[in-house]
Amino acid sequence: MNVCDAVRQRVSVRAFKPDLPPASLVRGLLEQAARAPSGGNLQPWHVHALAGEPLAQLLARLAAEPPQAEPEYAVYPAELPEPWRTRRWRNGMQLYDVLGIARDDRPARARQMLKNATLFGAPVGVFISVERRMGLPQWMDLGMYAQNLMLLAQEQGLATCPQAYWARCARTVREVLGLPPSRMLALGIALGWADEAAPVNAMRTERDPFEVWGEMRGFANGDQR
Ligand SMILES: Cc1cc2nc3c(=O)[nH]c(=O)nc-3n(C[C@H](O)[C@H](O)[C@H](O)COP(=O)(O)O)c2cc1C
Is 6 in the pocket of ligand 1 (CB under 6 A)? Predict the structure, then answer.
């Protein structure tokens, strides 16, 4: 698979088969992803991959306790103006449509949201944390690590779902992983083989056209907008 195919084919998968990928395969992905660039080569990511009993214990604990009142960080800005508000809304609606959840069925929507805390049934949970003192540039580095990991997984036929949802469970995850108080949980990534038959995995999200968000100037064949 070339990079183009991996980029095109990667989607967020929200239903997984229970089969556990081999440890060597997961380790290889985690290691190769660290070829990501990072400012000053700080490599600010800390990565825990949980499977089997340790993962089952974490998920059982989360199922038994309510989500944290205050997430680790604000997942979205408090006021989300256009065009982002509509994009987020459409994303939600697309998800509820493929699941057959009525738009006004709040309990069903809440149940779907809570599935985040089960990693959507994925057999592996990858938790990326970072020192609190790190700033925006280092958070960009984490994004590059995460995207590398997801594309490498794609190449191996594995599926992923990046989840900022874990910011709502950070206290428990930090405790279970034994992270020092100086460390923030940035992102969880569900990893495993996609359950191709699950309706939720039929969802394909849109992207706005280049003209909405991009511009090219100074190219030989004229400016492009
Ligand atoms: C940083 C980040 C956080 C995300 N958090 C969640 C999440 O908590 N739960 C979820 O179901 N999807 C989450 N997603 C997936 C997005 O909804 C998804 O990437 C977006 O709708 C585009 O769809 P695609 O990944 O299938 O291309 C997250 C994606 C990113 C990059």
Answer: no
The residue whose CA is least distant from atom 4 of ligand 1 is 163
Count of domains in the chain? 1
Which tens digit of pLDDT belongs to each residue from 34-73?
999 999 999 999 999 999 999 999 999 999 987 788 899 9
**Closest C-alpha residue for ligand 1 atom 19:** 12
For ligand 1, whether the C-beta of 161 sits within 6 Å is yes
Q: What is the DSSP string of 39-104?
A: GGG----EEEEE-HHHHHHHHHHHHHSPPPSS-SS-SS-SS--TTHHHHHHHHHHHHHHHHT--TT
205 CA closest ligand 1 atom index: 23
Q: 46-50 and 124-131 as β-strands: parallel, antiparallel, unpaired?
A: antiparallel
Cα-to-centroid distance, 189 and ligand 1 (Å): 10
Containing structural domain, residue 128:
3-76+117-201
